Amino acid sequence: MLRWARPLLSSGKAWVWSESMEEHSDVIVVGAGPGGLACSMLLAKAGVGVTILEKSDDIGGRTRVFEKGGYKFDNGPTFFHYPEIAEEIFDALGLDAHEELGLIPLDPNYRLVFGAGGSLDATTDLEDMVAQITDLCGEKNARGFRRYIEDNRTKMRLSKNCLNAPWRGPGDLMNRRALRVSRVLRPWRSVASDLARMFPDERMQLAMSFQTKYLGMSPFHAPSLFTILAYLEYEHGVFHTIGGLGTITQKMGEIARGLGVEIRLNEPVDEFVFEGKTVVGAMTEKGAYSADRFVMNVDFATGMKGLVPDSLRKRWSDKNLDKKSYSCSTFMLYLGVDKMYNTPHHQIYASKDYQNNLKEVTENKVTWDDPSIYVQNACVTDPTMAPEGHSTVYVLVPVSNSHPGIDWEEIKHDYMEVILRQMEHLGFKGMKEHIVSETIVTPDDWASRDIYKGAVFNLAHGLDQMLWRRPQNKFEELDRLYLVGGGTHPGSGLPTILESGRISAKMICADMGIEPDWNGADPWFEDLRRPRMKTRAS
């Protein structure tokens, strides 16, 4: 098993491998978030031996549930949308995603309340949406909605293969998938400017663009491709799972273990070990691990700085990482309250001056006057999340990422008061008097949890940090290292994170010469040249 006779480079010292301390796997996955779990399940189904090393006491990353005083909260994502990727991954395993994950469709998807007046109950019933929009702001905007759906249905069809396959460099812009999407992708336009052509009413522009916050970006800066985000909600709906969205990763972990994946909890990786620019090992306090391939499922910048010596990175050096653009962060309230609220499962309040609200976020300012907020009232759908007659209320406020000019520890309680007042716009009257349990999480708290700059949506998704300009699934600067998660292609958000896991699994199988049996699913990418592969048995 021992394959190296000379000392090997680590980030802090020279390691000499000892046969007595080394454990070997085909693939080591660092981190048990949804991307790492998706990748592991597919690899294990292909017959690959996988070990996951997870630093915390449970799997899921931020897609997990925590409990406090009998109240259960999703730590991060609170809804599941665009189920197609999960459906395909589970189908490759011979499983039904909806059945395994217990996906419950919501109707409405959410209620959007405009500070400028009026509201919409977003639904997959498109004719109902047309009627609501007509009542809110007239027939011209209703016609704009029909055009929006058709345009984005086409945009999604043409761009899909740009999102579910790797990018190797600017030369890929000349391949078939890129040429197809060029018909609908307008790189000189932002989401906001694209929507302004369809909707004269600014409230409708906002309704179809606030979803860019899922990427941690302003619609005034996000590329026009991302008009598809709202479309995916209207076309496919949004879903809840009983017990919280964290049950999804728990189920994925259960499936992974059933396929033979070994998951080691409470075992953070201290550093990778290198032979030249090839990753050959991972060190933890408990021992040394060698593998044929390695997958990094951690915050990208944090992982690079912590696991890889700066001298081995040129494009993604510490200096260059510090210069990159990062997403916004979030100010979070997790509230246990001693009453039930008859409001929709999901609600968004959009500031009367939404553009200025976003401008303050990008300029590292705190919006004290009329901030936009998102609220999840899960117990209206799922009473298991709280004691009988009580509720869990999850509140998210888009804010600047961690910045030395903002002392969140000093202002967080005052800001909570502002947010509680904002919640009255959504029907949560007198909330303060009913709070039994409260947890506040600030951008600085996120940063302390190994999220670089507290940027919860990772690297920003501008054109300068997308496709081949984003860290690649097969990491371009080191051999045998692959990336999954929001910091690699295709980007942030639970569906795309699952896709990153599938992309990396396909590439690993190809590089290892394995033709996976994924229940008839194609193990390669539609528009890319198929590599010569052989089965492991041969």
CATH fold name of the largest domain? FAD/NAD(P)-binding domain
Largest sheet: 9 strands, mixed
CATH class label of the largest domain:
Alpha Beta
> Mean pLDDT across all residues, rounded?
91
Total discrete domains: 3
Please state the overall shape, judged from the principal axes of the Cα atoms: globular
| Superfamily (CATH H level) name of the largest domain | FAD/NAD(P)-binding domain
Helix count, DSSP H or I runs of 4 or more residues: 16
> Could you list the spans in which at least 5 consecutive residues all have pLDDT below 50?
1-15
Structural class, from secondary structure content?
alpha+beta
The CATH architecture category of the largest domain equals: 3-Layer(bba) Sandwich
Number of strands: 21
Nearest-angstrom radius of gyration? 23 Å
Q: What percent of the residues sit in helical stretches (DSSP H or I)?
A: 25-40%
Strand content: 15-25%
Cα end-to-end separation: 21 Å
